[in-house]
Specification:
This protein has about 130 residues and is of the alpha+beta class. The chain is built from 5 helices and 4 strands; from the N terminus they run H-E-E-H-H-H-H-E-E. Helix 2 packs antiparallel against helix 5.
Length: about 130
């Protein structure tokens, strides 16, 4: 049994190390891709029947303390769990429960770039990765 446990533990350690290595390789590739696209003045490229596209987006960071001071407890409870839920916040904002002023005071937008890979033959997204 100890041989089997050792083999399985080694396999797990190898997989974790491979994952870490792959994540580092993806991070380097994302950086190189972003730089190459910027130099070429493009935001997508087709390769191997796939379209690799950079998508500019905004990640919102919420100031929970400020939000709790500016909205009532019912609204605060509806838009938070362990953190503010963006979809619930947007729903409350759209319903008028959260004003534009409150949103401006509580939301700290952070631009980021997503890389989306679409299979051109199927038109479906096959992999989505976020660049921080």
């Amino acid at each position: 049994m100890s041989k089997q446990l050792s083999a399985v533990a080694r396999q797990y350690v190898s997989a974790v190390e491979a994952l870490a290595s792959a994540e580092k390789a993806v991070a380097v590739a994302k950086e190189l891709l972003s730089e190459a696209y910027a130099e070429a003045g493009v935001n997508s490229w087709e390769v191997n029947d796939k379209c690799v596209q950079l998508v500019e987006a905004i990640r919102r960071n919420f100031d929970v303390a400020t939000l709790s001071e500016l909205v009532n407890a019912k609204v605060f409870g509806a838009v938070t769990k362990t953190a503010v839920e963006p979809k619930a916040f947007d729903k409350a904002r759209k319903a008028g429960d959260i004003s534009e002023e409150v949103e401006t005071a509580c939301v700290k937008p952070t631009p980021y770039t997503r890389i989306v890979i679409r299979d051109l033959a199927e038109g479906a997204v096959t992999e989505t990765a976020e660049a921080v």
